Amino acid sequence: MKRQFLALLASGLLSASAFAQVSVSDPWIRATVPAQKVTGAFMKLQSAAPARLVGVQTEVAGRAELHEMAMDGQTMRMRRVESIELPAGKPVNLASGGYHVMLFELKRQVKEGESVELTLLVADAAGKRQDVKVKVPVKPLTHSAHTGH
How far, rounded to the nearest angstrom, does the alpha carbon of residue 132 sit from its chain's CA centroid? Predict the structure, then answer.
């Protein structure tokens, strides 16, 4: 009985540990001009276990949404998405021209050189949610990350 309990405990710790391993690399937010009320946030995400990015929160914006740029015939359109799949072990690039985060109703100007805290809401395959806090540097208006779509 003791051995079964220890095996169950170890199994639970391993699955919790795998879920907690969502890494964020190369995050950045585009700076704004004083009256601007919208900007974008970009980054690379990787999860050790299958998961989904289901939301974003930040103090700097009234609302934050997950978006996707996609072709609609000959026109590139941006649309809101409910979630972004994070396949186990595979990097997911949130970048201009693809999936990204939109920050709406900005409460103030977002200036180059500062950092903005974002909270990424991640759900595992069972629906259990985890917050991943990220300090995101603000890059110049003209910044464009080189992405390998």
Answer: 9
Return mean pLDDT, the chain: 86
Within a domain: residue 80?
yes
Give DSSP secondary structure letters for 21-51. Answer: -EEEEEEEEE---TT---EEEEEEEEESS-E
- Is 149 a domain residue? no
- Asked, for residue 35, whether it belongs to a domain, the answer is yes
Residue span of the structural domain in which 66 resides: 2-139
pTM, whole model, 2 decimals? 0.81
* List of residues 6+ apart from 101 with CB closer than 8 A: 40, 41, 42, 56, 64, 65, 66, 67, 94, 118
Tokens of 38: 């919208």
Question: Residue 77: left (phi > 0), alpha (psi -120 to 50), or beta?
Answer: beta
- CA torsion sign for 100, 105, 110, 116 is negative
pLDDT digits (tens, 9 = 90+) for 102-121: 999 999 999 999 999 999 99
Q: What is the pLDDT of residue 8?
A: 42
- Residue 99 confidence class, pLDDT cut points 50, 70, 90: very high
